[in-house]
């Protein structure tokens, strides 16, 4: 059956997205039962510009959750089994992550300050991307993969991951020019992340941790990436920008 819709009233709007169901990091998808059937997962983009900005913040993060899972598995495999084709595919994964960052952070600074940031503050005054449990292992896995591959073989991965960091910094400078994150302002920046905070991050972004079968996971992944691609086609981020991001996503999806 399809994932249920979760409609919490936060701020001025409804966040109308299917709950993203994921296993815990490191846990495998479960086999599909005989006759497993997945109903279509519908994701509709709002027409109102502010509603669309909030929608992108959440949907883009759903895309990031899915890409993080892909990157974690791919980097882990590269550490154990260096392979040039997988290096290129993993580099595409970092390109896709860059696209998610640009997409989710495509709102204006005013919308971020007036709508999105207050939503996070209301949920938890210290709310932070550092609480994303699926992203936590990636820096260490990337270092280990690059070491296992060597600088020449790892070059595509190094280039894509560095470009990803630049995109992240660019989005941060646009939305939070003073660099004062909620975590820093709360005085908890030097405190280790707790499991409760990781669960809060999941909860805010409508993510449920549970056993998920292969077909259900792939159906939701396809729905998320397709919805982002269609949104970019209909509402480009800027001259040539939407086309570039859409191209990166299409290339990534075609290789999954």
Describe the structure.
This protein has 256 residues and is mostly helical. It has a domain at 50-210. It is built from 9 helices and 6 strands. The strands form 3 sheets. The chain has a two-stranded antiparallel ribbon with strand order 1-4. Strands 2-3 form a two-stranded antiparallel ribbon. A two-stranded parallel ribbon has the order 5-6. The protein starts with a strand and ends with a helix. Mean pLDDT is 88; it is low at 1-13.
Question: What are the SSEs and their pairings?
Answer:
Layout: E1 5-6, E2 9-10, E3 13-14, E4 17-18, E5 20-22, H1 49-80, H2 84-104, H3 109-123, H4 138-149, H5 155-175, H6 182-186, H7 195-204, E6 207-209, H8 214-234, H9 241-255
Parallel strand pairs: 5-6
Antiparallel strand pairs: 1-4, 2-3
Helical content band: 55-70%
Q: Count up the helices.
A: 9
Global Rg: 18 Å
SS content category: mainly alpha
SSE order, one letter for each helix or strand: EEEEEHHHHHHHEHH
Number of strands: 6
Mean pLDDT metric: 88
Poorly predicted runs are 1-13
- How much β-strand is present in the residues? 5-15%
Largest beta-sheet characterization: 2 strands, antiparallel
Shape label: globular
Strand order of the largest sheet: 1-4
**N- to C-terminal distance:** 23 Å
Summarize the structure.
With 256 residues, this protein is mainly α.
Features:
5% strand, 256 residues, disordered N terminus, 6 strands, two-stranded antiparallel ribbon
């Amino acid at each position: 059956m399809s994932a249920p819709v979760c409609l919490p009233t936060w701020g001025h709007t409804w966040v109308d997205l299917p709950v993203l169901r994921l296993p815990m990091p490191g846990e495998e998808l479960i086999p599909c039962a005989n006759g497993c059937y997945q109903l279509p997962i519908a994701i509709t983009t709002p027409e109102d510009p502010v509603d669309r900005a909030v929608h992108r913040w959440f949907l883009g993060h759903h895309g990031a959750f899915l890409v993080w899972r892909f990157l974690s598995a791919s980097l882990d495999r590269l550490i154990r089994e260096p392979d040039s084709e997988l290096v290129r595919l993993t580099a595409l994964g970092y390109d896709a992550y860059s696209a998610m960052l640009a997409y989710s952070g495509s709102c204006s600074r005013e919308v971020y300050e007036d709508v999105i940031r207050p939503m996070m503050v209301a949920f938890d005054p210290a709310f932070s991307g550092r609480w994303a449990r699926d992203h936590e292992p990636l820096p260490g896995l990337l270092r280990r993969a690059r070491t296992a591959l060597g600088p020449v073989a790892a070059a595509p991965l190094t280039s894509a991951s560095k470009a990803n960091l630049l995109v992240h910094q660019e989005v941060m400078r646009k939305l939070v020019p003073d660099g004062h994150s909620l975590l820093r302002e709360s005085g908890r920046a030097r405190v280790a992340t707790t499991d409760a905070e990781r669960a809060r991050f999941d909860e805010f972004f409508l993510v449920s941790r549970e056993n998920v079968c292969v077909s259900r996971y792939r159906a939701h992944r396809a729905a998320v990436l397709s919805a982002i691609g269609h949104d970019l086609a209909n509402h480009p981020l800027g001259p040539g920008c939407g086309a570039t991001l859409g191209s990166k996503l299409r290339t990534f999806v075609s290789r999954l």
